[in-house]
Design a protein that fits this description.
Length: 468
């Protein structure tokens, strides 16, 4: 019985230790993490912010590199970590941290060195860590190492070393970097209480999880009812640290609002979405011509009407051309990328040798392993459905194309609409009519909303704007 009781006690102690109840702890799964850093490493590992070289080895005593620091901070802030080409000659697209490095540089959390180098394998010092954290979490620090160190010590994120200094030049181990990062994210780990729940917010939805960390990888600590008031502190990426009663934790910013009364306005995420409208042809390129009507004029007028509708919404809207100018195919596609587009709609009118050809169709680009193929098809489907309802013309369907440059070279979900045949007298009469251009502009507007609704955005309140 004594042996059995001892065994039970040992197991219970281990469980309590790993759960962080004050007993000496070891990071779950990692055999090399010291007890002083176990809770923090566990926390980052739970949220998939930090990982080891294997399931059991964290590399706790290894000096953290700039690439690793960028990856840790990037994951914490939910930056784009997709591997890709960077601005640095020594960080190729194959580098495990290339996406996080470029994203962190774009956010001005990191900077490079002379010669276009990032030095991804360079060890990180305590002073450099302090600057990284201050920039990442938007602490005011005066742009100096000493200022950054003070910002961290004042918040209980870091403290000095044995000689009474901050140890600015000392190299930093992975375990210690993890401790500082966990404290910056979650004040529950800090050396002093620095919670500042000074902002009042309200929950937009009910049954809303309050999570222990800033991602859905973290467990729920409680729930919020719709319209309940909470106190908010700092942000970590798109997540806000809040308090509701005795429960503190993280809620995604999308589900919180600043006003007590729920606005009829739509999804706040829409303000981060940019719609690119592309009236085809222009300038020296008239496009198709039928019965004296030029395609470039019809599609520009329609595009401008769509633009006016979208300007009433939270969307950002950009036009490749708003006047009678010529733009190359490559520049149209590049425009979407340059302006951080999320959706690209190219507006055209069809033509044929036979005047009997008629109907409406929508083209999209689809090729094997194309990232935006599914979304391009969805966008095209929504636009086509709305155009058919508006025009009541023949349904020529969705057309999959791999040879149209304006679609092929685009970096965002894209669709090319063919409103109707400019060479068909009945459809030509509609194309040149201001009334029918307005009808079609509303159809394209609705189609864009339908696409976003299918993607999970709240756009219900925006449909009525087209009738105002």
């Amino acid at each position: 019985m004594k042996k059995q009781a001892a065994m039970i006690g040992l197991v219970l102690a281990l469980i309590l230790s790993m759960a962080g109840f004050g007993l000496p702890a070891q990071a779950a799964g990692f055999v090399d993490v010291p007890s002083r850093a176990a809770k923090e490493v566990n926390y980052l590992a739970e949220g998939k912010i930090a990982n080891g070289s294997s399931a059991t080895v964290f590399g706790a005593d290894k000096t953290v590199t700039r690439a690793e620091a960028a990856a840790f901070i990037g994951r914490a802030l939910q930056l784009d970590g997709a591997k890709r080409a960077t601005n640095f000659v020594d960080v190729g697209s194959g580098n495990f941290a290339s996406g996080y490095i470029q994203s962190a540089v774009d956010k001005k959390i990191f900077s490079g060195y002379d010669g276009g180098r990032f030095l991804p394998d360079k060890p990180v010092t305590r002073g450099e860590m302090a600057v990284m954290m201050a920039k990442a979490f938007d602490y005011s620090f005066g742009g100096t190492l000493s200022g950054a160190a003070k910002a961290l010590t004042a918040r209980g994120i870091a403290q000095g070393v044995d000689d009474g200094t901050f140890g600015t030049d000392q190299l930093l181990k992975r375990a210690d970097f993890s401790v500082f990062l966990a404290r910056a994210i979650n004040p529950e780990f800090r050396l002093v209480k620095t919670n500042d729940f000074s902002k009042t917010m309200w929950a937009n939805v009910g049954d809303l999880n309050i999570r222990s960390g800033p991602s859905t990888a973290y467990g729920s600590k409680g729930k919020l009812a719709e319209n309940v008031q909470v106190s908010a502190a700092h942000k970590v990426g798109d997540w806000i640290y809040i308090q509701s009663g005795e429960v503190v934790g993280f809620v995604h910013a999308f589900y919180l609002r600043d006003t007590e009364t729920k606005s009829a306005a739509s999804d706040p995420r829409l303000s981060n979405q940019t719609i690119i409208l592309d009236p085809g042809h222009g300038g020296r390129d008239p496009g198709a011509i039928g019965f004296g009507l030029q395609e470039k004029d019809v599609v520009l007028k329609t595009g401008l009407k769509v633009n006016e509708l979208l300007k009433q919404t939270p969307f950002n809207v950009k036009m490749t051309r708003s006047t009678d100018t010529f733009i190359t195919i490559n520049n149209r596609a590049a425009f979407a990328s340059k302006n951080n587009g999320n959706v690209f709609v190219s507006i055209h009118a069809n033509a044929a040798a036979s005047s009997s050809a008629n109907g409406t169709e929508t083209l999209y680009y689809s090729a094997t392993n194309t990232a935006n193929s599914a979304d391009s098809k969805l966008l095209s489907e929504k636009l086509q459905n709305r155009m058919l309802q508006a025009w009541n013309l023949k349904d020529r369907g969705l057309v999959r194309r791999t040879d149209l440059g304006v679609l092929k070279y685009n970096t965002v979900p894209s669709a090319l609409v063919e409103l109707g045949f400019i060479t068909n007298k009945e459809e030509n009469d509609k194309l040149k009519s201001d009334y029918w251009q307005t009808v079609m502009s509303k159809a394209l507007y609705y189609g864009i909303l339908d696409y976003y609704k299918a993607k999970g955005y709240d756009v219900d309140s925006l449909y009525d704007l087209a009738n105002s």
